[in-house]
């Protein structure tokens, strides 16, 4: 089981400029408005020639592409028409923004041989080659762009060269490649597996994604190439059959939670990207029983990581890692998109409902809490936001909306995609459709990383292709350019409270437990008779309280009260421990939020915990009964009100003039027709659903 804190995808996704620059190999930089290559036919057109300009612009991704030699006589590494076409193309992994606004292409890690241009990792990697191929395949399918067809062809040839074609590791994939074509199976720092083709991996999952969409794309126009891609899909499936799929039907336990044993590298994130490719492939080749079986089994595994529900953390989300029931991350969050797409191919309505719950319930709460941050662990800890996480939400929302007709999910997709155009923590646009330039992320402090590497531009352009295919959603996204309100989950630390008895603050050596974080880096150790009084943010409406204690240690219960009208009012009790087997979890520490049965009234500022037994109390999550997200743009606005309970509730609006109110249920389906009302009306929000309010 790989370490969550050292996951190569996470490390690259959150890399700062200081991490990736090292000693820069000189590669010609290009101005923002003149990226190498001709922009695709689907690129942005000027307003004077089109009433609805395209948002997709592949110019920056084109700039990242470089010619890569396909070296002969490398054991186990061949590709399509290698002798006749001895080169292909691949994207450089990073692009560092220079002071003049141009970019320099950069490889991974420090330079190890300047004469050869070698990096400790490499110039190109299978992760980005595969996903770049998906971008060009989708642009070719959607916009019929001839240059995108050629780019997809080149990238798929490059990718399949990295796939090991013979020997005990056949079907697996080498991750890194130098700019002269040399493979680097063992990069520095070491990444698991090492060598990178010695076992299944995220990059094998993404190879399956590209092969599946590649076969579907080329099947009619180039049957010979499609046949080659089909052979390589068979090779990949053979590798998966002898690895993760060999465990189908078995389960493991993680902190007492039973989880499937057959997810690819134990991750629903990795598995979901393979499922996207398998869905495309099985739809194009329905007679391939091996692929159909793999699709069904992997989809079942993803579905089994659905967790929580209305008012219960994580609110219906599909969790990404089998070994941690207390960790969700936005990056790699294609689970709802993959499960919904597979549900359509497999005709599995149960899968579709699970994907809908993730998108309508969890995603609505996520947006009201501030958006797709890199980690809920289980509190929203890593506040970084990147295009990979944003795109994952957009893809999931639109996949379920397209499959089910849930109109509310198209609204949420527009809200999420507005991140690119200014409705984000930085309050600034992070994508320029006239150049195709994006950013590598927004830090928790709101500072924008203005570099624009392969992963970032790939997922940005996948979002733009989706928006161009959904003009009504694009209209919402581009109109909403600022965030006016976020009133979702907040955190109150136990260690910031006041104590009686022997209660004391404990600071562990590391906040990271292996599968979660001690919120704030500390907790309170308390025993029977001790009290902990915690100050919570001032509330304007009723709130639910979700205490977080280490359920892997302690005994008994903790009672929770608030002061109301001069009296103590009980909110209920939380467990101090839950006897459970650690199993595959990295640690016995189990920081699962528990929802108290009562809600605290508006104006509540403190909670008191009275301990019976012993407890390691970390924090409390405060969830408004009705969370609120507000966005605005020139002459427009959109407010989303999210009900975190299993019963209908109402919310009094401020007086902002006449508005249009639309209600959606817990699966994002519209209820009745929109209604027009005065801006100070009381609106209804369905149980587990959400309501939108727009100016009339």
Report what the structure shows.
The protein has 696 residues and is of the alpha+beta class. The strands form ten sheets. Strands 17, 18, 19, 20, 21, 22, 23, 24, 25 and 26 form a ten-stranded antiparallel β-sheet that branches. Strands 16-27-28-33-30-31 form a six-stranded antiparallel β-sheet, with helices on one face. A hairpin with a 5-residue loop joins strand 30 (659-664) and strand 31 (670-677). Helix 12 runs antiparallel to helix 13 (407-417).
N→C terminal distance: 53 Å
How many β-strands, per DSSP? 33
Overall pLDDT score? 92
Sheet having the most strands: 10 strands, antiparallel
- Tell me the β content: 15-25%
Q: Give unreliable regions as ranges.
A: 1-50
Oligomer: single chain
Which overall shape is indicated by the principal axes computed on the Cα atoms?
Answer: globular
Structural category is: alpha+beta
Radius of gyration: 25 Å
Portion of residues within helices = 25-40%
Count of helical stretches? 15
